[in-house]
Amino acid sequence: MIQAVIYRKQGKWTGYEVSGHAGYREAGEDIYCAAVSILTFNTANAIEALTEDMVESSDANGRLICQFPNGLSEKGKVLVDAMVLGLEQIEESSGKKYLKVKIQEV
């Protein structure tokens, strides 16, 4: 199962962490892993490309960690909101079998 934890402090997004594998199909054929990867990587890339916000990210050993050390602008917030919406829709459509999304206050 993929675990996605989105962090917020006082109602503002501070980062997210994604790890694990869906196990729906073999590597390279797993639509849940692909969908989650596209959403999470694209969000980090979009924030860097479309805003002035700072993004610190690392991707190693099947784990993506993305942090916003200086907070997010309104554009950055909307991009993360869209990612969270997409992840929650994937979680629901899979019956919570392949993806678990958690919003964690820090």
List keywords for this structure.
single chain, 106 residues, alpha+beta, Alpha-Beta Plaits, 5-stranded mixed sheet, 5 strands, globular
Q: Care to describe what's here?
A:
The chain has 106 residues and is α+β, with helices and mostly antiparallel strands. It has one domain (2-105): 2-Layer Sandwich (Alpha-Beta Plaits), CATH 3.30.70. It has helices spanning 31-50, 74-93, and strands spanning 2-9, 12-20, 56-60, 63-67, 99-105. The chain has a 5-stranded mixed beta sheet with strand order 3-4-2-1-5, covered by helices on one side. Strand 3 (56-60) and strand 4 form a beta hairpin. Helix 1 packs antiparallel against helix 2 (74-93). The longest helix has 20 residues, at 31-50. It starts with a strand and ends with a strand. The model has no long low-confidence stretch (mean pLDDT 96).
Write the layout of secondary structure elements.
Layout lengths: L1 E8 L2 E9 L10 H20 L5 E5 L2 E5 L6 H20 L5 E7 L1
Parallel strand pairs: 1-5
Antiparallel strand pairs: 1-2, 2-4, 3-4
Helix pairs in contact: 1-2
End-to-end Cα distance, whole Å, is 23 Å
- Portion of residues in helices? 25-40%
Can you write the helix and strand succession as a string? EEHEEHE
Could you tell me the CATH topology label: Alpha-Beta Plaits
Which architecture name does CATH use? 2-Layer Sandwich
| Cα Rg | 13 Å
Number of E-state strands: 5
Give a short account of the largest sheet.
5 strands, mixed
